[in-house]
């Protein structure tokens, strides 16, 4: 029973850690939206791979799936000269360095979308806010006290929390961006985080688009087969009934 309670607490933690501002933002991921996936891959390589890995996928697989030439993959996604295009997406930061700098090793993001879902990732990327009481200067409503710095701060800007007093307590009700601190407006940043979430959803299941495409034909086959089987059954049993 104790183990069961601990498991439930762990699974529900991302939901209960949210502030009053909202429970979960919704995002539309599409494994067939290659322009979005290409932009997401570039964002991941430029802003996430300094700390995180996606070690279950290789650079050349990304190029094949997303329609990116090997030359472009090497130019925009690979920054270590010694890295080969057939290698996995790993970073240069060791676990010991991550623990020294942030207190915990940075997790591999290969299966994050399968574990938590795209909405979780999208909400997390949009819910960083300035908190001078933390080591990084930022906090997050999804994971309170997160050790992760706001890697996309230069894009979004410095987001400040807005509180209201309710029943004698301050409640987080929204956010406002400090003017002149980000290179994107709100809609552009939402699109960027949607692209990044879409890419991480693809990384978690690279075969998803093909699975969905084949699934349509499988259902059509079963539909036609069911009709044929029905009439065949009627033909075999017509003299019995």
UniProtKB/TrEMBL annotation:
- Provide the Cytochrome c domain boundaries: 35-207
Signal sequence span per UniProt?
1-19
Task: Note the superkingdom of the native organism.
Answer: Bacteria
The entry marks the following residues as binding heme c, namely: 48, 51-52
> GO molecular function of the protein, one example?
electron transfer activity
Matching SUPFAM superfamilies: Cytochrome c
Q: Where are the transmembrane segments?
A: 214-232
Q: Which Gene3D superfamilies match?
A: Cytochrome c-like domain, Cytochrome c1, transmembrane anchor, C-terminal
Give UniProt keywords alphabetically. Heme, Iron, Membrane, Metal-binding, Signal, Transmembrane, Transmembrane helix
Which GO CC terms are listed, alphabetically? membrane
Q: Which cofactor does it need?
A: heme c
Q: Known InterPro entries for this protein? A: Cyt_c-like_dom (IPR009056), Cyt_c-like_dom_sf (IPR036909), Cyt_c1 (IPR002326)
Kindly state what the record says about how the cofactor is bound.
Binds 1 heme c group covalently per subunit.
Q: Where in the cell is it found?
A: Membrane
| Name the UniProt record assigns to this protein | Ubiquinol-cytochrome c reductase cytochrome c1 subunit
Q: Which organism is it from?
A: Aquisalimonas asiatica
């Amino acid at each position: 029973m104790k183990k069961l309670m601990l498991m439930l607490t762990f699974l529900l933690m991302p939901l209960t850690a949210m502030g009053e501002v909202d429970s979960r933002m919704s995002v539309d991921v599409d494994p067939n939206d290659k322009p979005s996936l290409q932009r997401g891959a570039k964002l991941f390589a430029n802003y996430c791979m300094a700390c995180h890995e996606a070690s279950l996928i290789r650079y050349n697989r990304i190029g094949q799936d997303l329609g990116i030439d090997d030359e472009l993959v090497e130019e925009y996604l690979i920054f270590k000269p010694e890295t080969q295009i057939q290698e996995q997406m790993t970073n240069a930061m060791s676990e010991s360095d991550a623990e020294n700098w942030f207190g915990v090793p940075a997790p591999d993001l290969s299966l994050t979308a399968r574990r938590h879902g795209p909405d979780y990732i999208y909400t997390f990327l949009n819910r960083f806010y300035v908190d001078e009481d933390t080591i990084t200067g930022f906090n997050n409503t999804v994971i309170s006290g997160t050790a992760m710095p706001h890697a996309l701060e230069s894009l979004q800007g410095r987001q400040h929390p807005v509180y209201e007093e309710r029943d004698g307590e301050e409640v987080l009700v929204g956010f406002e961006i400090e003017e002149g601190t980000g290179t994107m407006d709100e809609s552009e940043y939402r699109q960027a985080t949607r692209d990044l979430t879409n890419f991480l959803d693809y990384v978690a299941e690279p075969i998803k688009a093909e699975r969905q495409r084949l699934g349509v034909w499988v259902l059509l086959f079963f539909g036609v087969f069911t009709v044929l089987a029905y009439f065949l059954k009627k033909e075999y049993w017509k003299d019995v009934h």
